[in-house]
Amino acid sequence: MDDNTFQQFLYLSEGESLDFKRDQYKISKSSEDEKSEFVKDIVAMANSWRKTDAFIILGIKENNIKPNTLFGITDHIDDATFQQILNSKTNRPCKFSYETYTYQDLTFGIFRIPVQDRPIYLKKNFGILKPEVVYVKRGSSTAEASIDEISKMGLSLQEENKNPILNLAFFDPESENNLGTQIKCKTQPYLILDEIPSYFEKEEMFLAFSVNRKYYWELYSYSNFNFKFSKIHFILENSGNSEAKNIKIEIDILDKDIDIIQNGDEPIEPEKYNSSTYRKIPTISSKDEIELKISKNKITISSTIANIHAKDSIQLEGNVYINPRISRVINLNCKIYCDKIEKPFEQKMEIQFNQSMRNICWEDYKKEIIDN
């Protein structure tokens, strides 16, 4: 665990793979009913339908409006005590680990429950729990699994792992490094304080009719582009044991008050003269290239990939450029579809932007940026 990973919990909601508890479980000098609350939560999370590790975080209260509230815990219990309470009571070992983590001078308890063989249930009564009843986490609540649901849990972990497991990450093509699902970007655009003059060359007055009067403004937009926008690349990984085919990736951004363009739409270096000899060559997008769609409620980045082999990764063709306009955090909600997978792989990604505007007069900008 590190601060970047822990900070994600401040903006996430409870579900099949995440639960928040305001206080520590009542273990020391407590009744079986109180201890069984801990057992129920761990077993239900172990039985939940998910593809990744699950977490129970002690010391955080979930809020409808994020961020969640940090309280921390003061009653510390070691991992061995929790293990002893639970694993002598279930039909098969229930795998989990417990650790404490300090953040902003507060201590939190963190249970990590990996994907494992199911179903897991108690062999006899314990507190409020009944024997041979399979408890399962559904959304933010816990329920008793149906017979049909239990039969599907009987599918061995080995069979489940024959499927592909797809994850999206940010990517740096220069270093060829996978940057994970959280990155930080810094933008420092220039703002011209005075008027940008029209372009005109006296020595070529006979060509005045063809001079591009907007040349300086276009040159400013072109040269300022890389200061204003961050270039974002993605990479797709298949950590599963089988090939994924006919993959479709959808990345939704709900922040509408940003500037975003796809590769091929970035400005080109302007020309001093208006002439039919200077024309933009139309950008022809390949089938697998990133596409951008801006609708009323959201921005969607999409891409398709024919296939990706097991234990392999593929960089998405193309990229997007984002201008955050202000310092902010932009959240990306990702869904990845492929053949033979009933539900899409879902994940969240995050870009933390730090933007600082630099004010400058035109002549200084021209001398500092353009003429150099």
From TrEMBL:
GO terms for molecular function: ATP binding. Residues 14-145 form the Schlafen AlbA-2 domain. It comes from the Bacteria. The keyword Ubl conjugation does not apply. InterPro entries: Schlafen_AlbA_2_dom (IPR007421), Schlafen_AlbA_2_dom_sf (IPR038461). Signal peptide: none annotated. Keywords: ATP-binding, Nucleotide-binding. This is ATP-binding protein.
